[in-house]
């Protein structure tokens, strides 16, 4: 492909994306294809001869689009948002086009240095404190720093490896770990990536202590954490890491970071804060409270620009207060990677900050996003999501059939269908059945997409707002679909008692 051909072909792809975004709201949000049907449609040998891009794009439309669930749809309200955006796509294109490998500073200095600067800027904007910056405001080098990981799951895994490195005085990387000796703590609402991290680190999933939460707020019970720590220490075990959740996946609950940090440090444990979804909200002064306690107490912190901050997957920002623990756990220097810059100690070699060696230039994507929208644009986006979620809360509160299942947080509302039209409470099992049926009705309508969770054994709907194309009208339209489906289900239930 010549440069001129590339220019022409690239425009066709950008046109495809622009058309897709412009019309995605008219498509069914959730794909309903049968398992295996996409594979069957696209299967076949690699072509011997080159095919024109038109043919590829036409097959995308014909064979792949029906099997897509549209995450950029304005009425995608499931899980958490995974914002793309024009600036992120353009930044990602730059990264792909540059095609640099940033494993060492020496393999492309701009890749490492831009990442350090962007993460310092973001740490300050999120109120994490200077302790997490590569370079302090006075220009002197810091002890901490940030890195872009692929996902929060990887960030949490590396936090655990750093914590284990510190707790074992470095023996974890040389000797491995003794079975049953080291323990990890988080609430019952913590993300499953913590359990996975325990499995991958060699601690085993039984090392994870699941701490109770308050039945309404879903926040970790600090007294229960204190007891669990005490019991393990009395039995000769070593607490390695306590994880606080800022914005749990189920309901968006924010754990008491300050109290948890004090407890963790009393027992020599590392405090990791998982703010994968909610953390970015702190860019707005009125939501800065979500990161309270992080500056003073956290040893590490993760939040995902690839969720609610307009940065196409993947981009997970992760910071540590003491980079020597992380680098100590993960550094390795084979002869073929030796170079004077690394040996001088004056540079950051990011291959020591994560499991993999190679890494792409994600920082240019995040930098493009931060500059293209500015703090004012990013705040406007976050605020729109919070305002739309407040409208959802208002609708739930005003309808006698629905009950909030936990306090709403930022862009997330958890609720269930719990009463009939007159407000008479349904038996729990019946309410569970109808809540699940309601979700199925909304999702199969193609109009909107919600997801669910279980709280204290009860089925709960999650309505997660925050799409970049979502408007107030999309919220109203989805509520209408939900309300009509509830009418139908309750009418049906009344007609067939028992
Ligand atoms: C989404 C989420 C994760 C996992 O994020 P990935 O980047 O997909 O690994 C972890 N923790 C919380 C609280 C989340 O919301």
Report on the structure:
With 498 residues, this protein is α/β, with parallel strands linked by helices. Helix content is 44%, strand content 12%. Among the domains are: 82 residues, dopa decarboxylase, N-terminal domain, CATH 1.20.1340; 261 residues, Type I PLP-dependent aspartate aminotransferase-like (Major domain) (Aspartate Aminotransferase, domain 2), CATH 3.40.640.10. The strands form two sheets. A seven-stranded mixed beta sheet has the order 1-7-6-5-4-2-3, sandwiched between helices. The longest helix has 37 residues. The mean pLDDT is 96. Bound molecules: pyridoxal-5'-phosphate. Pyridoxal-5'-phosphate binds next to helix 6. GO terms for molecular function: aromatic-L-amino-acid decarboxylase activity; pyridoxal phosphate binding; transaminase activity.
Task: Supply database-style keywords.
single chain; alpha/beta; dopa decarboxylase, N-terminal domain; 4-stranded antiparallel beta sheet; 12% strand; binds pyridoxal-5'-phosphate; transaminase activity; Aminotransferase class V-fold PLP-dependent enzyme; pyridoxal phosphate; PyrdxlP-dep_Trfase_small; transferase
């Amino acid at each position: 492909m010549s440069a001129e051909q590339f220019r022409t072909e690239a425009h066709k792809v950008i046109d495809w994306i622009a058309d897709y975004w412009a019309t995605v709201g008219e498509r069914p949000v959730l794909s309903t294809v049968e398992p295996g049907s996409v594979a069957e449609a696209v299967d076949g040998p690699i072509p011997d001869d080159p095919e024109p891009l038109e043919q590829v794009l036409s097959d995308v439309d014909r064979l792949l689009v029906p099997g897509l669930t549209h995450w950029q749809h304005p009425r995608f309200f499931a899980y958490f948002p995974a914002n793309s955006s024009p600036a992120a796509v353009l930044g990602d294109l730059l990264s792909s086009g540059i095609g640099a490998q940033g494993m060492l500073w020496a393999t492309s200095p701009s890749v490492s240095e831009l990442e350090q600067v962007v993460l310092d800027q973001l740490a300050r904007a999120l109120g994490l404190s200077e302790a997490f910056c590569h370079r302090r405001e006075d220009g002197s080098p810091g002890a901490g720093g940030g890195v872009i990981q692929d996902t929060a799951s990887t960030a949490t895994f590396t936090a655990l490896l750093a914590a284990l490195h510190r707790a074992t005085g470095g023996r974890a990387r040389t000797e491995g770990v003794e079975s049953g000796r080291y323990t990890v703590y988080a609430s019952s609402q913590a993300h499953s990536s913590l359990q996975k991290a325990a499995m991958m680190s060699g601690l085993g999933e039984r090392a994870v202590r699941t701490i109770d939460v308050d039945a309404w707020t879903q926040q970790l019970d600090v007294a229960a954490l204190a007891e669990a720590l005490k019991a393990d220490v009395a039995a000769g075990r070593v607490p390695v890491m306590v994880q606080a959740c800022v914005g749990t996946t189920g309901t968006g609950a924010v754990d008491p970071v300050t109290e948890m940090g004090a407890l963790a440090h009393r027992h020599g444990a590392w405090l990791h804060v998982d703010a994968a979804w909610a953390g970015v909200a702190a860019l707005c002064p009125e939501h800065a409270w979500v990161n309270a306690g992080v500056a003073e107490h956290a040893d590490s912190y993760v939040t995902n620009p690839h969720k609610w901050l307009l940065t196409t997957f993947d981009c997970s920002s992760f910071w540590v207060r003491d980079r020597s623990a992380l680098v100590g756990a993960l550094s390795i220097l084979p002869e073929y990677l030796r170079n004077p810059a690394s040996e001088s100690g004056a540079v950051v070699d990011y291959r020591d900050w994560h499991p993999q060696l190679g890494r792409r230039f994600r920082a240019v994507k995040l930098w493009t996003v931060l500059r293209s929208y500015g703090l004012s644009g990013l705040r406007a986006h976050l605020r729109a999501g919070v305002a739309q979620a407040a409208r959802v809360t208002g609708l739930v509160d005003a309808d006698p059939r629905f009950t909030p299942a936990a306090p709403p947080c930022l862009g997330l509302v958890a609720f269930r269908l719990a009463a009939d039209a007159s407000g008479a409470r349904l038996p729990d099992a019946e309410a569970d059945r109808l809540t699940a049926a309601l979700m199925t009705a909304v999702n199969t309508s193609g109009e909107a997409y919600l997801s669910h969770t279980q709280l204290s054994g009860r089925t709960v709907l999650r309505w997660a707002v925050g799409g970049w194309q979502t408007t107030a009208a999309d919220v109203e339209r989805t509520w209408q679909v939900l309300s009509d489906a509830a009418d139908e289900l309750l009418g049906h239930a009344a007609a067939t008692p028992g």
